[in-house]
């Protein structure tokens, strides 16, 4: 710390990311609460523990190799250059002195933790879709792949100022509509396609049967915790203090997005709240007042607008959030009926469809804005640059980017891994275990005082309906 200002900047940045980690932890609390509320009583502990155990497992794997991927592979590699071997990459290997207690590097640990919380989020998104029939071991293998490999690879490509998708394609996804949510939703849909629906979820004629949650109030609390944790998510996507005019003698400090382009906490506050509000309203309208889809609509509204919420006008964020919820709701029910996909919490829709739609919309609405500061030769961008030589945000780059996030790094690897797990009997619990309940081997009913008549769906399962 060479100066008093430099010291204050470092310490503030260190504390800033530490606070975002604390807030983002509420996202995982919310996912656990939400999933338990959506499960039936006979599956509560299994649902809770599989989601809980992704925390320590992904933490270890992200420490060992996930963090290195972000700094080492922004070029592909071999798309815009070789494997990156700079000082940041050297600081991210697990044996580096920067990956432990030291007084020289105050930022690496809290920045690592912020990205780690994003890793937990990608795994938890998938977790909720699969409840009541997936094996814990199978889920955890998928969670490690997504949480410590595929999502952080897409972050290196499209969520870094040096990422090849940003520099060559003008890809823009400031608050991770595609980078976190698109890839997680695509991965969830792939696993669901292999896993299959719960026994009795569809009538013999293909009509979906309703499986009521055991506790809708826990779902409500869980989603509001996720909304709260999202404040930390948004803040963690920013760099709090940065000189955005380094080429002149003028010093101008501002918050920046992940691409080092200026924004403000005020801007993202307006847009976060307006996109949440638009999502809640559209969820309420399109579902005719269904609480589950009203609350889920709020989350889908945020996710849809997140790609461009550093630059949108608040009214744009409102409208885009509403549009994304309509798309997600309609696609969810069409896919459910057409392909018999049993997505318990609507993860593929709320995160995958809404996030992917949001990335595509951002390419059109923000067309021509600078995507990031250039790191190579001016004019290298495939789909156009700004007059200053910055890669320009454009529809083609964001459409291709949405496909890469959702399909190439999301659906495809998850489908391959799920097929392998299924072939070895590691993906789905046996039929008799599913019918009896996944908690039958662990402990008695956690709510014996509420041992009322079992729901109609349980009767259908016992009778072996398909």
Task: Please render the helix and strand layout as text.
Elements: H1 4-38, H2 44-72, H3 87-91, H4 108-129, H5 136-158, H6 164-169, H7 177-195, H8 216-236, E1 239-243, E2 253-256, E3 262-263, H9 265-286, H10 291-305, H11 314-339, H12 347-365, H13 395-423, H14 431-436, H15 456-462
Antiparallel strand pairs: 1-2, 2-3
Helix pairs in contact: 1-2, 1-4, 1-8, 2-4, 2-5, 4-5, 4-7, 5-7, 5-13, 7-12, 7-13, 8-10, 9-10, 9-11, 10-11, 10-12, 11-12, 12-13
Outline the structure in words.
The chain is an all-alpha fold and 466 residues long. It has one domain: Ammonium transporter fold (Orthogonal Bundle). It has helices at residues 4-38, 44-72, 87-91, 108-129, 136-158, 164-169, 177-195, 216-236, 265-286, 291-305, 314-339, 347-365, 395-423, 431-436, 456-462, and strands at 239-243, 253-256, 262-263. The protein has a three-stranded antiparallel sheet with strand order 1-2-3. Helix 4 packs parallel to helix 7 and helix 7 (177-195) runs parallel beside helix 13. It is globular. The termini are far apart. The model has no long low-confidence stretch (mean pLDDT 93).
């Amino acid at each position: 710390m060479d100066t008093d200002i430099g010291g204050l900047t470092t310490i503030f940045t260190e504390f800033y990311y530490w606070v975002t980690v604390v807030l983002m932890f509420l996202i995982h609390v919310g996912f656990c609460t939400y999933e338990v509320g959506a499960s039936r009583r006979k599956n509560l502990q299994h649902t809770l523990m599989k989601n809980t155990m992704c925390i320590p497992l992904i933490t270890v794997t992200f420490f060992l190799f996930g963090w290195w991927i972000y700094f080492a592979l922004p070029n592909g590699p071999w798309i815009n250059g070789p494997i990156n071997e700079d000082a940041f990459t050297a600081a991210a290997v697990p044996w580096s002195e920067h990956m432990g207690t030291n007084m020289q590097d105050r930022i690496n640990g809290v920045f690592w933790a912020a990205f780690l919380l994003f890793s937990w989020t990608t795994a938890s998104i998938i977790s909720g879709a699969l409840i009541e029939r997936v094996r814990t071991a199978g889920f955890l293998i998928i969670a490690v792949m997504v949480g410590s490999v595929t999502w952080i690879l897409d972050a290196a490509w499209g969520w870094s100022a040096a990422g090849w998708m940003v520099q060559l394609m003008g890809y823009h996804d400031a608050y991770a509509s595609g980078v976190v949510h698109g890839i997680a939703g695509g991965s969830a849909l792939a696993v669901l396609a292999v896993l299959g629906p719960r026994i009795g979820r569809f009538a013999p004629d293909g009509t979906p049967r309703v499986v009521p949650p055991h506790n809708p109030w826990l779902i409500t609390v869980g989603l509001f915790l996720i909304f709260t944790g999202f404040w930390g998510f948004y803040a963690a996507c920013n760099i709090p203090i940065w000189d955005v005019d380094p080429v002149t003698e003028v010093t101008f400090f501002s918050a920046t997005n992940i691409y080092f382009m200026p924004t403000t906490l005020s801007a993202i506050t307006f847009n976060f709240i307006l996109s949440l509000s638009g999502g809640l309203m559209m969820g309420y309208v399109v579902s005719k007042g269904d609480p589950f889809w009203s609350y889920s609509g709020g989350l889908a509204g945020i996710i849809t607008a997140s790609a461009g919420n550093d630059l949108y006008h608040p009214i744009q964020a409102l409208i885009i959030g509403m549009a994304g919820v309509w798309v997600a709701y309609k696609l969810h029910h069409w896919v459910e009926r057409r392909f018999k996909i049993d997505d318990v919490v609507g993860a593929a829709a709320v995160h995958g469809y809404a996030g992917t739609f949001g990335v595509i919309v951002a390419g059109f609405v923000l067309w021509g804005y600078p995507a990031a500061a250039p790191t190579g030769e001016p004019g290298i961008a495939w789909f156009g640059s700004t007059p200053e030589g910055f890669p320009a945000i454009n529809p083609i780059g964001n459409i291709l980017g949405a496909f890469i996030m959702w399909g190439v790094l999301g659906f495809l690897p998850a489908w391959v891994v799920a097929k392998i797990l299924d072939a070895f009997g590691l993906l789905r619990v046996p039929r008799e275990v599913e019918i009896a309940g996944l908690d039958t081997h662990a402990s008695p009913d956690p709510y014996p005082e509420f041992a009322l008549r079992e729901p109609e769906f349980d009767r259908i399962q016992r009778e072996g309906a398909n």
